[in-house]
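User: I'm writing a tutorial on reading structure tokens. Could you give me a worked example: one chain, its sequence, then its tokens, then a sentence or two explaining what the tokens reveal?
Assistant: Sure. Here is the example chain.
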Amino acid sequence: MHIVGWSKIVKSKEEGGLGLQEARAKNIALLSKLNLRMYQEQDALWAKVILKKYFPTSRARLRDPEKLPSSPNWKAISLGLPIFKRGIVWGIGNGLDVNVWMTNWVNGGSLRAMIEGPLRQEEQNLRVADLRCGHEWKWELISFDFPKFIKDRIKATPIQLYGNGRDNLMWKYSKDGEFTTNSAYRLANQGEDPVNQFHGLWIWKLDILPRITNFLWLCLHGSIPMKDELAARGINCDKVCPMCKSQDESIVHLLQDCVVARELWRKLFLPHMSIPMLVVFENSIPNPTLDKICIGQAKVYYYCVSKVKRLTSKIAIPIRWSKPFPGWHKLNTDGASFGNPGKAGGGGLIKNSEGS
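And here are its predicted structure tokens:
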């Protein structure tokens, strides 16, 4: 019986998985990196051969160029192309290499995907350099009015005014703009969905055996084959706990509510335990009776501790003047005040390495 789904296992530990990586998504992430290299190294011999053979201008203009005959190598490279396109964004320098409509250079994707309707012939080949004039934009070159949100995104696009001025590709899923395989893998495996933070990261920080850590991980996911879980999956079985024979067997009952478990925890609850009680009760169903007992014991402990007079030991710290380095002078200052506001005074003393 498969207790935990594979889609959950291949998630990162921060998202509740085991940190394993799916082979197909990992391969696509590496192929997207190869697409980036092929674009950045267009002058390299290997890139020239591949682009000339499998992606000439005549082929790129076709509606479905991927349906044409090609080698297994080009088909593999094409698998990483969608992730490459989704992850890159253009950093604007002089704007000569960036098409206004088809290139991803503003926040949210290409401008062509944000608008509907045909474009004029002279508008289709507009470059960012044509549309920009210093810090201003030539809106009159466009035959229609951009919506306000598109204009705001264009105005908010950072533009490099200094340096070599060339447009450059950046990876938008990293802070420094550099491509990372991990971010490409996550994009290929889960898309752009927000990360659901797993509240059980503490189990990986415990100094315990790995098999116990994995057991706790299964508990937090409710994936221990208890009798109630087996019955929920259609297996005909008796759900009564074989230890106490009074309640249905579940994870919470096994670790918290069963009388046998309570007695075991009572005997093991020592100050030097390596597994805190948080391991048992994290993400569990609240138990009102247990809450009352814990709160009552906490009140008694607080009352007893507050009545004990704390013993403080005074430690005398010797204070003496230390010489500065030869050729240096040292300035020592001090001050005091009688209240705030109140009378205050201060002073200072300058001495050299000889003490004078």
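What the tokens reveal: Residues 288-307 form the longest helix (20 residues). Residues 3 and 223 are 6 Å apart (CA to CA).
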